[in-house]
Amino acid sequence: MMMATTCCASFAAYRRGGGSGGGGAAKHYRSTTTTTTRAPHLQHYRRQHHSSCGGNGGARAAHEETFLCAPAAASASITANLRRKHAFWRLAASSSASPPADSSGNGGDGSSSSSPSSSSQPEFLGIAMSTLKKVVPLALMMFCILFNYTILRDTKDVLVVTAPGSGAEIIPFLKTYVNLPAAIGFAAIYARLSNLMDRDRLFYTILVPFVMFFGAFAFIMYPARDTLHPTEFCVDLLDKLGPRFMGPIAIVRNWTYCLFYVMAELWGSVVVSVLFWGFANQIMEVKEAKQFYPLFGLIANVALIFSGQAVRYFSTVRAGLPPGVDGWGMSLKGLMSMIVVGGFCIAGIYWALNKYVLPTVGPIEGAAKKKKEKLSMSIGESVIFLAKSAYVRSLATLVVAYGISINLVEVTWKSKLKAQYPDPNDYSMFMGNFSTATGTVTFVLMIVSRYIFAKFGWGVAAAITPIVILITGATFFSLILTPGVWEPVLAYLGFTPLFMAVLVGAAQNVFSKGAKYSLFDPCKEMAYIPLDEETKVKGKAAIDVICNPLGKSGGSLVQQLMIFTFGSLAASTPYLGVVLLIVITMWLRSAARLSALFEGAQQNLRSHDWDDPGEEVVPDSDLRADPNERSDEEPTPGVVKTS
After folding, report:
1. Basic and acidic residues bias: where (predicted)?
2. Is 568 helix (H, G, I), strand (E, B) or coil?
3. Using one digit for the tens of pLDDT, what is the confidence trace for 570-601?
4. What kind and span of H or E run contains 69?
5. What are 462-502's pLDDT values in tens digits?
6. Is residue 489 exposed (0-12), middle (13-18) or buried (19+ Cβ within 10 Å)?
7. 353-381 in b/e burial notation, b at 16+ Cβ within 10 A?
8. Alpha helices in 33-128 (DSSP H)
């Protein structure tokens, strides 16, 4: 057996075919070459293509190689897929060919072949200084924003749950009838202001009112609460309507606390999502975002740890106060003073970035490109789109199920927390420790999540969050509904059933939120990747319009129905447990179904990439390290054997 090979062309003929240009090389290769083996010629041609298109001094040296080819009769054995790839390479080479480099390393036109920021850019620890100038201030800004948000989140619960005539029953009504209209109103105001102001003025116009309100609440509104709250009117109204209406009446009775609750909720959605991430996306390049955005997530959890301890510290000031002094009022002044200082730090960092950093780092890569129009879908269009796509329906079920299930357990837990800690300072101290634990667990889970995704895949990662909520939620409800079963454990630990329920509920929230931040959110975003562009954009728009609000308010609506039906949240607890079980079951089924669809979509995507003639990157199987290596499933094309 011997392999017939012939020399395709001389070096001079090759140079006449376009030695310095990728198009000529591709033409010469296509017209005269019939491969003896598939892999060597792909490797050889790709080396020729890259060296000939680069426009540098190594181009001519690479062109001095000769092609060894089989007889022309063997050309028919080249597959159609390979021909399409050759056509694409020829087109890409001709479009990217550049004049030969001169001895100075410049292009043929005398210009430098490298960008100004390539090799001359100063670095620190392998990171470009221009990038560090942006990342470090953004990280500090993120820390301040999340530090403030954790304090506000813990404080708002203390205010509305421990307020006179109130309880955890107020939360479902607040989220549905106060938070949602406030969010819609802010969206309308923000859209109007964004058309009237530039970026800097808009940032300060949104941030400053938040800071001023929280400062005014601690030093003006809270001390004057007895004057501002219509206590007598609400007490008479509650006597007439009955305890079923305690939640709505408590909103009116403690309206300043509820206003604080709404502003604290808006801080999370407005300052974090709109102001910070909007600004970061404007000044960060895509390659920088991929590298440093995960770092911001870790910083957020570090902020949770520190802010939780700050809440705990200010909740202990009551011990050193003389009798008759409102300890919770003093704690509020200390906490809101930190909010004000943090707000000014955020504004100062933003000003310094725009004043001193951004003018020195040059234009942002891709900033001149036309911004892609964001698809806006009405509620009716969103419902129709969700009904048509099984993939998007399954993803929507995950989002709605999380919102409902976490709300069902969290509100019930907060009602037990108030029973255990009726004093606002004690309640606040516990919430501070709770936030610290949440930040620590989430930080660890975010590191472990990389291993989970790599080892077990998307399906297992997506199932962990509902399983965690199911196990911890079932344990929590069993402590409330069947305390006798836990008597041996309680006797051994020396805990009361109420305190044990508080601890288990806290653990449920800590691990559920940690799993949500580290696993559920990445799974949700990854699920969009293998979709085609239309389904990806429309599906995300449909979920934003329908599923996010439904998930947040769905649990609240269920609890409101239970409260009106059974009279109180405590009487509704057994039925809430049943609803939780149903929701988790639907969640797990949808996660399993979506996992199969996700894997199938990925396989289709890989198959499409292999068959696509416009594919830029050649699969590794076409560029083997060993030229003589071939798989058992396919013959080696272009080989002519003679005996």
Report:
1. 621-630
2. coil
3. 788 888 889 999 999 999 999 999 998 888 87
4. strand 68-69
5. 999 999 999 999 999 888 888 888 888 888 888 888 899 89
6. exposed
7. beeebbeebeeeeeeeeeeeeeeebeeee
8. 38-53, 59-63, 80-96
3-class SS of residue 522: helix
For residue 348, what are the CA distances in angstroms to 129, 141, 345, 558? 21, 9, 5, 44
Give pLDDT tens digits for 330-345: 989 999 999 999 999 9
Rounded distance between C-alpha atoms, residue 118 and residue 112, angstroms: 11
* Residue 306 backbone dihedrals phi, psi, to 5 degrees: -70, -40
Contacts of 536 (CB under 8 A, 6+ apart): 528
| Chosen CATH of 378-612 out of 1.20.970.10, 3.30.70.3270, 1.20.1250.20, 3.30.1330.60 | 1.20.1250.20
Q: Which residue has the tokens 């300052």?
A: 271
Q: Return the closest-CA partner of residue 306 out of 115, 440, 173.
A: 440
Domain boundary assignment for the chain: 1-99, 129-361, 378-612
Q: How far is CA 553 from CA 317, 407, 549, 558, in A?
A: 36, 9, 6, 9
Q: Which residues pair with 6 in a beta bridge?
A: 69
How far is it, in rounded angstroms, from Cα 79 to Cα 83? Answer: 6
Dihedral (C-alpha) 239, 245, 248, 252: value to the nearest 10 degrees?
Answer: 0
pTM of the full structure: 0.65
Residue 106 β-bridge partners: 112
Q: Length of the chain in residues, anyone?
A: 643
Rounded to an integer, what distance in angstroms lies between the CA atom of residue 537 and that of residue 545?
A: 12
> Does residue 569 contact residue 415 with C-beta atoms inside 8 Å?
yes
Question: What are the backbone dihedrals phi and psi of residue 128, each rounded to the nearest 5 degrees, phi first?
Answer: -60, 140
CA 483 to chain centroid, in Å, comes to 39
If we measure between CA atoms, which residue out of 150, 145, 170 comes closest to residue 258?
170
The CATH architecture assigned to 129-361 reads: Up-down Bundle (1.20)
Element of type H or E holding 117: none
Identify residue 21 by its one-letter amino acid code: G
> CATH topology of 129-361 equal to that of 378-612?
yes
- Helix 255-266 vs helix 129-161: crossing angle, to nearest 10: 160
